[in-house]
Design brief:
With 295 residues, the chain is α+β, with helices and mostly antiparallel strands. The chain is built from nine helices and 14 strands. The chain has two domains: 8-177, no CATH class; 190-289, Ribosomal Protein S8, Chain: A, domain 1, CATH 3.30.1370. Helix content is 36%, strand content 21%. The protein is globular and about 55 Å long. It starts with 7 loop residues before the first strand and ends in a 6-residue tail after the last helix.
């Protein structure tokens, strides 16, 4: 089945504030803290295994831009069809093209590794330890995705569909966060920029205050301490948020001393991706000139 055109993508709320690792991590567990709906939660990702020709194959935690883009595609199809059966096109190379990525042999190999890692990984959402009603919710996205030969490139070797868990689909459809798919494609070289864009798309339309300030320490904790020291994080975060704002021009965000200021903003809109150019340029100049808190 040919892949349909996607212009709008979606994300479940929890994956707009709890993120996959940006680079490969050692071990079989990844945990990060998220806060949404006024409560603190912990998101855990656990390495999965699958049967491969009679033996167990262990996959890593999915990381980088590829699994983020694959999830965006899956979510777009799930919201459009309200179905757990997701069409994946006729070949891996076609799928890469629709993700906005080159279809080289190396990229195909990376797709194979990351989509298998995503399919095997388990996602768990926990309430914070200090909550009296602590619960664990399984929000693992993928229920089934058939393997295909590592060296195979023919259409017949590419699984034509992927199956989601019912619980993940229900979680997604409950309150999907709207993203512009073309903007994601423009940012797909930077996992950090993808995370910041997704976070802004969730956060800004839901603000009920005129202005909210977030400090570097709070942002560091939200986007995980795996960036390193707060000073290093600040530099990388500024680069990522500037990239995100180039594709989200209606986002009212300013970098100020000690952190950033957020104001209520409309959600991303593909019809206005390239609008407000002069306002965006003025804002970026102001951001670059803003005094920053020293480490």
């Amino acid at each position: 089945m040919p892949i349909p055109l996607v212009t709008t993508a979606y994300a479940p709320e929890v994956l707009c504030q709890g993120f996959l690792p940006r680079s490969r991590v050692d071990g079989m567990h990844w945990a990060t803290t998220v806060r949404f709906r006024g409560r603190q939660h912990a998101l855990s990702l656990v390495v999965g295994t699958e049967e491969t020709e009679g033996s167990h194959q262990v996959h890593p935690i999915p990381y980088g831009s590829l699994p983020r883009m694959v999830l965006a595609w899956i979510n777009a199809m799930a919201v459009a069809t309200k179905s757990t059966s997701i069409p994946m096109g006729e070949s891996g190379y076609e799928f890469l093209h629709h993700l906005g990525m080159d279809a080289s042999g190396m990229r195909y190999t990376a797709l194979r590794a990351q989509i298998h890692a995503l399919a095997a990984c388990k996602f768990f959402l926990h309430t914070a330890p200090d909550q009296n009603d602590r619960q664990t919710t399984d929000i693992t996205p993928v229920r089934e995705f058939a393997t295909w030969p590592a060296s195979g490139s023919s259409r017949s070797n590419w699984p034509g569909s992927l199956t989601l868990h019912d619980e993940y689909l229900a979680h997604l459809l409950e309150s999907p966060v709207t993203l512009d798919y073309q903007s994601l494609k423009r940012l797909n070289g930077s996992p950090s920029a993808l995370d910041v864009y997704t976070w802004l798309a969730y956060q800004l339309p839901r603000l009920d205050q005129v202005c909210v300030k977030m400090g570097w320490t709070e942002l560091h904790r939200l986007f995980s301490p795996h960036y390193g020291a707060t000073g290093d994080f600040r530099k990388k975060f500024i680069t990522a948020i500037q990239a995100a704002l180039t594709v989200y021009p209606r986002a009212l965000v300013e970098i100020v001393r000690g952190g950033i200021e957020l104001q209520p903003s409309p959600p991303p809109d593909s019809n206005e991706r390239f609008a407000l150019r002069s306002a965006r340029a003025k804002r970026r100049t102001k951001m670059q000139d803003s005094p920053l808190e020293k480490s």
